[in-house]
Specification:
eight-stranded mixed β-sheet; single chain; 8 strands; Aminopeptidase; 210 residues; 25% strand; alpha+beta
Length: 210
């Protein structure tokens, strides 16, 4: 996160909250929520499975249940975008927990500081039939995820991204920093990254606040 005074931090967080709520609203009629039941969580895992199969990063027999999940999901917030009763988008936020590594730390042998103050975002996907060039649903999901991270007291965000997704995040207005060379993770070559959401606030608001 960029160095910033307390007053400017408060201003940036307030502006990001307003922006994020606006992005969520613009995604209507899709509504976003944190999965609460086993059935809802499995809907997220199924969307993740389908995304891997569609992009050729896995085969059906790799996931005989048709669900993609790992040990980090037990403490993660599973975000789902719903259109009526149909899940059409998902992502997850892995919260820090003492004695446990974040997915990015585990996959790339990193230790992200300050310990206990970083959330790990990832597993973002929008179902093929709902993917749009203007990124409305993806942006809404990112906005909702930021609101959830803030609600749990976090503003430092890490994750992994392919070269293509790095370019996409930067086009959206995010400051993204690669932390190490890429290697194969989650079915493709990915970089471990910092996402400086607070430092990106001004550009994000300029591009998405209208």
């Amino acid at each position: 996160m960029s160095d910033i005074t307390a007053d400017k931090l408060d201003q940036a967080l307030s502006a990001l909250e307003t922006l994020s709520k606006g992005l969520v609203a613009k995604a209507a009629p899709v509504r976003f929520a944190v999965a609460q039941t086993t059935t809802e969580k499995e809907a997220a895992y199924r969307l993740r499975y389908q995304a891997l199969i569609e992009r050729g990063s896995a085969k059906p027999n790799d996931f005989p249940e048709g669900l993609e999940r790992d040990s980090h999901d037990e403490r993660a917030l599973q975000i789902i975008g719903w259109e009526d009763d149909q899940p059409i988008a998902t992502g997850r936020i892995v919260l820090p927990k003492k004695g446990y590594l974040l997915p990015t730390e585990e996959a790339f042998g990193l230790k992200l500081e300050p310990q206990g103050e970083v959330v790990d975002i990832g597993r973002y996907t929008v179902a093929h039939d709902w993917a749009q060039k203007e990124n409305r649903y993806f942006a809404g999901m990112l906005g909702f995820s930021w609101l959830e991270a803030q609600a749990h007291g976090y503003m430092r965000v890490c994750g992994t991204a392919s070269a293509g997704m790095l370019r996409h995040y930067r086009r959206l207005g995010f400051i993204v920093t690669e932390l190490a060379p890429p290697h194969i993770y989650y079915g493709e070559e990915r970089y471990p990254c910092w996402y400086d959401v607070v430092g990106s606030a001004q550009v994000l608001i300029e591009r998405w606040g209208s």
